[in-house]
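Protein folds are increasingly written down as discrete tokens. With that in mind, we are printing a sequence and the tokens encoding its fold.
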Amino acid sequence: MPFDFNAAGYPTYVPTNSEDDDYYLRPVVPTPRHCPTPSPQASPNLSPMYLDEYYNYVQPGTGVVGVPMIPAGFMPLPPSPSMLAATFVPLPPSPNVSPRLGPVPLTPVSPGGMLGAYPAHPHPRYTYLYDRYYFPQGMTYYHRPSEIFSPLPKAGTYYQNPQYPPRTNVHPLLRDSSGTRLDLSSHSYSPQMLTSNWPRRKYSAIHRDYLSQPATYPVTHEIKIICNAFGLFADSWAIRINPGRTVTVGDVLYAIHNSIYKKMIHAESARFSDEEMYEIGKAYTLRIRNTEFERVQGARRVDVLGKKHWFGGLRKIRDDDPHRFELLVKAE
């Protein structure tokens, strides 16, 4: 056996001439003889572990077989003194701290060029205003599957900063012409809205609750609408809406239909060229072919638009101007 016990009872390693014994039976941990300061929690009679020929950890004299990397005689060491709870010792006060005024805040920029802990100009807390009619330019409106019959498209929420002039936004029924149907060449005023898109597009009369909603946000009491499709008469045929209260969706649609369907006077028709009068005559003929009553009424402003006699929506002229808009017209 390559180990023996000394007078104190500790095993000592005794090398032999056998290469196999010297290879397999080597102490895994040093003997207490080589440890002048043993662990205070370790037993003085603790024997070292040896690796036998089958690579098992054995403890001579006890028959204990250990698990590799976890010897049977392993004892945990006491915790490090640095991990123990230390007594709190207050530091002496800094000369930059006043006993009455409290700590002095850091400057925005330190002398070394580094930014301080506090910003130079902290941002104020704004109370943002919710914009119920916000629809970004060029946004594709969508309907949820559960709201396929909803007349109003959906858009993301938007909050305006009160420090800047409010942006004017138009009601969806007035801005998006795909959801509103209004024939400006018809004698009867009948605005409709899209209620179904499948299997075919279906329109129904706009409910009075939608017609009574404000036309713009922020609300306004006066609106001027021009239509550049009228050419020379874009300014003189401008539509002015001033109901003495908040302008609603119904006010705008009715004023547009009533103004465009007015009859032209001779002084106005005389300003058109022969080619323009020819196109106006064609539009007039198509409009009255199914209505005998309209035959004796003469040409109307809507005949100047030709085939583009359908409501195409309102467009803002300026974001900060809630009183002026442009009327867009389209063909069916």
Observations:
- Residues 274-288 form the longest helix (15 residues).
